[in-house]
């Protein structure tokens, strides 16, 4: 069962994402409400997947992704946002993330399609 850390500053989205992913067979091992907590959670929890909001209060998801992709623990990073992927241009492709899912389109299948 793949493990997931959800990093998003909205508690309602974290709760919804947890419910959706757990129903689809993922083990949500933790939640983070900002970039620093996400980085700490990756180190402590060593998840297989980091579901990472692009817009966090202390740093953007692209910065967090860059740190995760060069760290000792390298989960598959999937970026999420309430905005459309086209709003970020080439930033998603250049980030090192496996891909992007709009929050309204999050499903276990969509996540599996990106992380294998």
Structure description:
The chain has 116 residues and is an alpha/beta fold. It has a single domain (3-115), classed as Response regulator (Rossmann fold, 3-Layer(aba) Sandwich). 39% of the residues lie in helices and 22% in strands. The protein is built from 5 helices and 5 strands. It has helices at 11-23, 35-45, 61-69, 91-94, 108-115, and strands spanning 3-7, 27-32, 49-53, 76-81, 99-102. The chain has a 5-stranded parallel beta sheet with strand order 2-1-3-4-5, with helices on both faces. The radius of gyration is 12 Å and the shape is globular.
Topology, pairings included?
Layout: E1 3-7, H1 11-23, E2 27-32, H2 35-45, E3 49-53, H3 61-69, E4 76-81, H4 91-94, E5 99-102, H5 108-115
Parallel strand pairs: 1-2, 1-3, 3-4, 4-5
Helix pairs in contact: 2-3
């Amino acid at each position: 069962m793949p493990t997931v850390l959800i990093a998003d500053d909205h508690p309602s989205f974290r709760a919804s994402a947890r419910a959706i992913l757990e129903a689809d067979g993922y083990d949500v091992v933790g939640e983070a409400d900002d970039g620093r907590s996400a980085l700490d959670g990756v180190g402590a929890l060593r998840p297989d997947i980091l579901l990472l909001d692009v817009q966090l209060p202390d740093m953007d998801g692209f910065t967090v992704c860059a740190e995760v992709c060069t760290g000792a623990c390298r989960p598959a990073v999937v970026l999420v946002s309430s905005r459309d992927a086209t709003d970020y241009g080439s930033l998603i492709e250049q980030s090192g993330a496996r891909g992007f899912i709009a929050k309204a389109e999050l499903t276990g299948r969509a996540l599996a399609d990106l992380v294998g």
